[in-house]
Specification:
single chain, 107 residues, mainly beta, 4-stranded antiparallel sheet, 3-stranded antiparallel sheet, 1 helix, 9 strands, elongated
Protein backbone atom coordinates (compact mmCIF):
# COMPACT_ATOMS: atom_id res chain seq x y z
CA UNK A 1 0.00 0.00 0.00
CA UNK A 2 1.23 3.51 -0.69
CA UNK A 3 -0.87 5.16 2.00
CA UNK A 4 0.79 8.29 3.32
CA UNK A 5 1.12 9.25 6.95
CA UNK A 6 -1.15 12.25 7.60
CA UNK A 7 1.30 13.72 10.06
CA UNK A 8 5.09 13.58 10.21
CA UNK A 9 5.04 14.06 13.98
CA UNK A 10 6.87 11.14 15.59
CA UNK A 11 4.62 9.68 18.30
CA UNK A 12 7.14 7.21 19.65
CA UNK A 13 8.96 4.00 18.84
CA UNK A 14 7.27 0.75 17.95
CA UNK A 15 7.29 -1.75 20.84
CA UNK A 16 7.91 -4.57 18.35
CA UNK A 17 10.61 -3.41 15.94
CA UNK A 18 11.64 0.04 17.25
CA UNK A 19 10.41 1.63 14.01
CA UNK A 20 8.83 5.06 14.15
CA UNK A 21 5.10 5.36 14.86
CA UNK A 22 3.05 7.99 13.01
CA UNK A 23 -0.62 8.90 12.56
CA UNK A 24 -2.24 7.55 9.37
CA UNK A 25 -5.80 8.14 8.14
CA UNK A 26 -7.62 5.50 10.24
CA UNK A 27 -4.93 4.42 12.67
CA UNK A 28 -1.61 5.01 14.34
CA UNK A 29 0.97 2.60 12.95
CA UNK A 30 4.61 1.70 12.75
CA UNK A 31 6.28 2.91 9.58
CA UNK A 32 7.29 -0.71 8.86
CA UNK A 33 3.64 -1.79 8.55
CA UNK A 34 3.65 0.20 5.32
CA UNK A 35 6.93 -1.18 3.99
CA UNK A 36 6.96 -3.48 0.98
CA UNK A 37 7.69 -6.59 3.06
CA UNK A 38 5.30 -5.57 5.90
CA UNK A 39 7.77 -6.66 8.53
CA UNK A 40 5.73 -5.25 11.41
CA UNK A 41 2.04 -5.28 12.32
CA UNK A 42 1.88 -2.73 15.13
CA UNK A 43 -1.12 -0.42 14.85
CA UNK A 44 -3.77 1.19 17.01
CA UNK A 45 -7.09 2.36 15.56
CA UNK A 46 -8.04 6.04 15.92
CA UNK A 47 -11.34 4.84 17.41
CA UNK A 48 -11.89 1.68 19.49
CA UNK A 49 -15.47 0.66 20.29
CA UNK A 50 -16.56 4.26 19.56
CA UNK A 51 -13.96 5.73 21.95
CA UNK A 52 -11.74 8.18 20.03
CA UNK A 53 -8.04 7.48 20.63
CA UNK A 54 -6.04 10.69 20.42
CA UNK A 55 -2.39 11.40 19.80
CA UNK A 56 -1.64 12.04 23.49
CA UNK A 57 -3.10 8.64 24.41
CA UNK A 58 -0.93 6.86 21.84
CA UNK A 59 2.17 8.78 22.92
CA UNK A 60 1.58 7.71 26.55
CA UNK A 61 1.05 4.07 25.49
CA UNK A 62 4.29 4.09 23.52
CA UNK A 63 6.13 5.41 26.61
CA UNK A 64 4.89 2.34 28.48
CA UNK A 65 2.30 4.21 30.50
CA UNK A 66 -1.22 3.19 31.37
CA UNK A 67 -3.78 5.73 30.17
CA UNK A 68 -6.29 7.41 32.44
CA UNK A 69 -9.68 5.70 32.49
CA UNK A 70 -11.45 6.46 29.18
CA UNK A 71 -15.21 6.69 29.46
CA UNK A 72 -16.54 6.57 25.89
CA UNK A 73 -16.28 2.88 25.01
CA UNK A 74 -19.43 1.14 23.80
CA UNK A 75 -19.71 -2.63 23.55
CA UNK A 76 -20.27 -3.77 19.95
CA UNK A 77 -22.24 -6.73 21.33
CA UNK A 78 -24.89 -4.99 23.43
CA UNK A 79 -24.14 -1.25 22.93
CA UNK A 80 -23.54 -0.77 26.67
CA UNK A 81 -21.09 1.93 27.60
CA UNK A 82 -18.02 0.91 29.55
CA UNK A 83 -14.91 2.49 30.99
CA UNK A 84 -11.37 1.22 30.80
CA UNK A 85 -7.76 2.33 30.95
CA UNK A 86 -5.41 1.08 28.23
CA UNK A 87 -1.83 -0.13 28.19
CA UNK A 88 0.40 -2.00 25.78
CA UNK A 89 1.18 -5.60 26.62
CA UNK A 90 3.56 -8.11 25.03
CA UNK A 91 4.06 -7.65 21.26
CA UNK A 92 2.41 -4.25 21.54
CA UNK A 93 -1.06 -5.72 22.04
CA UNK A 94 -3.59 -3.31 23.49
CA UNK A 95 -4.74 -4.31 26.96
CA UNK A 96 -7.92 -3.10 28.65
CA UNK A 97 -8.00 -2.43 32.40
CA UNK A 98 -11.64 -2.32 33.44
CA UNK A 99 -12.83 -0.03 36.19
CA UNK A 100 -14.74 -1.78 38.98
CA UNK A 101 -15.65 -4.67 36.74
CA UNK A 102 -18.54 -6.52 38.40
CA UNK A 103 -17.78 -10.18 39.01
CA UNK A 104 -20.34 -12.44 37.42
CA UNK A 105 -21.25 -15.45 39.57
CA UNK A 106 -20.34 -18.72 37.88
CA UNK A 107 -23.35 -20.44 36.42
Amino acid sequence: SNEEAISNVLLGLCPNCRGRVFEWSQRYACENVQSANRKCDFRIATSIHQQPIDVDTVTALLRGERTPVLTGFRSPRNQRRYQAALSLGPQGKLQFHFKDKPRQPAK
